[in-house]
Write a structure and sequence with these properties.
The two termini are 41 Å apart. By secondary structure, the protein is of the alpha/beta class. It has 16 helices and 18 strands. Helix 14 links the parallel strand 16 and strand 17. The chain is globular, with a radius of gyration of 21 Å. The strands form 4 sheets. It has a 6-stranded mixed sheet, with helices on both faces. Helix content is 38%, strand content 17%.
């Protein structure tokens, strides 16, 4: 079977394309722009790909090797309801679907149980931790990650695995396409407002997801937030359990993610949670989650107040341990989201000595919403005196170098993708 992946340069679709290749399918694809993930799939054996989405490349690909299935990213259907590629597939009778339908086919065909790790925040870290623990324990698994790791590829399909570990995203209601064997939930707070216009609609989606799962693991605060109670199918964990903070991983929320991961792998293996503590303490981290780019310079994917709080917790622990001042560079992810969360910023950057706020990374925007500038957004902080607007330019690079030379801890909380603060920092500072 020949599968064509549109959006193959995104973290989600690139992972699925690699899975398809490993599972024995022929793979091709396209994206609108070049980037790290586009190059990653090319380096891992998927070479029949292009940055042409005009319809010409897919037509030529289909002519040379007929396409059986067109799998596309949710962003494509939201940004272009009638893209040239989708129109070509309709005119040529090619099956089209989002990635969830492909994964359900793969799970059914290969008879693997889905471990679906969900949540507004923490799911990438938790998924990576589960994969790390399974690999360290010698448990064969298939998996798909939403971020790169040092201890494996972006995805892996193992014919001998009983389980498929998957970062299961709620965006565009994707997670409701599945009926998982086990669903660990790392944290819940209202997000993706263009999909879920009210907090209750978001919570209802999580209740539906929990109802479709054979077993769910979640924190007490999240159970209360969405309105579910413990029973024989829902395991509720008290976040005040003292043993959680005996783990040596920096950051309160990172330790909570680790605890959920240990609980998950204990259920997968039948071994006691305590047996995974030593392995968990050796977790090497993942790309763009408090990732060290250069001495004292970190990049951290964070775009909601809860994710920022998690990044601040880890950053302040590192700064205190090394007697450093903390400097934050913040890039909001989407202007649309800012209109919903601007009043929630308040004290999220409390503890930082200095904050540089750069323009929002734009994606899937509502053209009817005015662009909120860094200067406007800074006014919503309780400690606005520490913050100043900035641009991704030589002036900001010079300021960062000054802070690094002084021995300050500099942490970027950023988006990902072409043209983002994360990519800019890698070009300017990463060895």
């Amino acid at each position: 079977m020949h599968i064509y992946f549109s959006g193959i340069g995104g973290s989600g679709i690139s992972s699925f394309a690699l899975l398809a290749l490993e599972a024995g399918f022929q793979v091709s694809g396209s994206d609108r722009q070049d980037g790290a993930y586009f190059q990653y799939v090319k380096q891992h054996g998927i070479t029949d790909i292009s940055l042409d989405q005009s319809g010409a490349f897919i037509a030529e690909t289909h002519k040379n090797n007929p396409i059986d299935w067109f799998v596309y990213t949710s962003a494509l259907s939201m940004e272009q309801t009638e893209s040239p590629e989708i129109r070509f597939c309709r005119e040529n009778g090619i099956r089209t679907s989002k990635r969830d339908e492909f994964l359900n086919m793969l799970l059914a065909e290969k008879n693997q149980k889905l471990i679906a790790i969900a949540g507004t925040h923490g799911k990438s870290t938790t998924t990576a931790m589960v994969v790390w623990l399974c690999k360290d324990a010698g448990l064969p698994i298939s998996y798909s990650l939403g971020a790169k790791v040092s201890f494996g590829d972006l995805s892996l399909f193992n014919q001998d695995s009983e389980y498929f570990v998957y970062e299961c995203d709620e965006f565009d209601r994707n997670f409701l396409a599945f009926h998982p064997f086990l669903s660990p939930i790392s944290g819940i707070s209202w997000d993706h407002h263009e999909i879920y216009p009210t907090r209750e609609s978001y919570n209802q989606a999580f209740r539906d997801f929990i109802g479709q799962s054979q077993t769910t693991i979640l924190w007490q605060r999240d159970a209360e937030y969405v309105g579910v109670t413990a029973n024989d199918r829902i395991k509720v964990i008290d976040e005040h359990t003292p043993a959680i903070h005996e783990l040596i991983i920096p950051g309160k929320f990172n330790r909570e993610d680790a605890w959920i991961a240990m609980e998950t792998v204990a259920r997968m293996t039948g071994k006691p949670m305590e047996s995974f503590k030593e392995s968990m303490d050796r977790f090497p981290g993942l790309k763009q989650r408090m990732e060290l780019l250069a001495p004292h310079l970190y990049t951290n994917y964070a775009h909601t107040p809860e994710k920022i709080a998690g990044g601040m917790s880890a950053s302040l622990e590192i700064a205190r341990e090394n007697n450093q001042d903390l400097v934050i560079i913040y890039e909001p992810l989407t202007n649309r989201r800012q209109h919903y969360i601007k009043d929630e910023y308040k004290d999220v950057f409390q503890g930082a000595k200095k904050l540089y706020w750069v323009p929002s990374y734009l994606a899937r925007e509502d053209p009817n919403l005015p662009i909120l500038t860094p200067a406007e957004l800074i006014t919503h902080l309780d400690n606005a005196e520490i913050a100043e607007p900035a641009e991704l330019d030589d002036a900001l690079a010079a300021r960062i170098r000054e802070h690094l030379d002084k021995g300050d801890l500099v942490v970027a909380m950023d988006a990902s993708g072409a043209g983002s603060l994360d990519e800019w920092l890698r070009q300017k500072f990463a060895a």
